[in-house]
């Protein structure tokens, strides 16, 4: 099998599939049914997070250290866990970041990366991949800024792939695969740009 490329990722996302690596590095493509999404318009930050947001406890940056975020996400959560983010996946997504189609939202404390998330944007669809934190609330704050940015820039679909407790707390729901594919076609046919200029404007408001 040839090495995973950014073009492979673009083709996969447009067609509703995404890769994950097995413990030996073997890549498999997935298309869950049902599919988990987070409705962008209905998200509300938890009450417990609001004091953290109001105090600007973390410095938020976009695309400052994309590979660092991926490597943070690749760290196994426990001794019994394996990571699905292989070196091949890191290389391909980093290439996609260089093309302007993959993005990271990063939380810093004392200039140290302490949490964040990354994903892929195509048209008005954002495909959330993974998040991590080494300080409490860091990934939650990064997600909050992701949502605000998606709203500002007219994104219509936030894909989170599988349902679990982590994404459920952000308002994730499950929908049938056929419904997801319809939303995907509509969103990827529209234009929305994850641009630095609009991000800066968001922070200065």
From TrEMBL:
It catalyses: N-terminal L-lysyl-[protein] + L-leucyl-tRNA(Leu) = N-terminal L-leucyl-L-lysyl-[protein] + tRNA(Leu) + H(+); L-phenylalanyl-tRNA(Phe) + an N-terminal L-alpha-aminoacyl-[protein] = an N-terminal L-phenylalanyl-L-alpha-aminoacyl-[protein] + tRNA(Phe); N-terminal L-arginyl-[protein] + L-leucyl-tRNA(Leu) = N-terminal L-leucyl-L-arginyl-[protein] + tRNA(Leu) + H(+). It is found in: Cytoplasm. The gene is aat. The lineage of its organism: Bacteria, Pseudomonadati, Bacteroidota, Cytophagia, Cytophagales. Its main location: cytoplasm. GO terms for biological process: protein catabolic process. Signal peptide: none annotated. Functions in the N-end rule pathway of protein degradation where it conjugates Leu, Phe and, less efficiently, Met from aminoacyl-tRNAs to the N-termini of proteins containing an N-terminal arginine or lysine. Its EC number is 2.3.2.6. PANTHER family: LEUCYL/PHENYLALANYL-TRNA--PROTEIN TRANSFERASE, LEUCYL_PHENYLALANYL-TRNA--PROTEIN TRANSFERASE. It comes from Emticicia aquatilis. This is Leucyl/phenylalanyl-tRNA--protein transferase. GO terms for molecular function: leucyl-tRNA--protein transferase activity. It comes from the Bacteria. Belongs to the L/F-transferase family. One of its GO terms (cellular component) is cytoplasm.
């Amino acid at each position: 099998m040839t090495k995973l490329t950014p073009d492979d990722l673009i083709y996969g996302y447009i067609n509703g599939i995404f890769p994950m690596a097995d413990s030996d590095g073997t890549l498999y493509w997935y298309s869950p049914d049902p599919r988990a999404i987070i409705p962008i318009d209905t998200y509300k930050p938890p009450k417990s997070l609001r004091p953290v947001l109001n105090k600007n406890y973390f410095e938020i940056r976009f695309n400052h250290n994309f590979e660092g975020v991926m490597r943070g996400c690749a760290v196994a959560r426990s001794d019994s866990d394996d990571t699905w983010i292989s070196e091949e996946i890191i290389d391909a997504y980093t290439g996609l970041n260089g093309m302007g189609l993959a993005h990271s939202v990063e939380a810093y404390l004392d200039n140290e990366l302490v949490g964040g998330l990354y994903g892929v944007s195509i048209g008005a669809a954002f495909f959330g991949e993974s998040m991590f934190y080494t300080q409490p609330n860091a990934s939650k704050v990064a997600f909050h800024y992701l949502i605000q940015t998606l709203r500002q820039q007219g994104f219509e679909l936030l894909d989170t792939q599988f349902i679990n407790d982590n994404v459920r707390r952000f308002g994730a729901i499950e929908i049938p695969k056929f419904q997801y594919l319809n939303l995907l076609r509509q969103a990827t046919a529209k234009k929305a740009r994850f641009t630095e200029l609009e991000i800066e404007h968001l922070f200065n408001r």
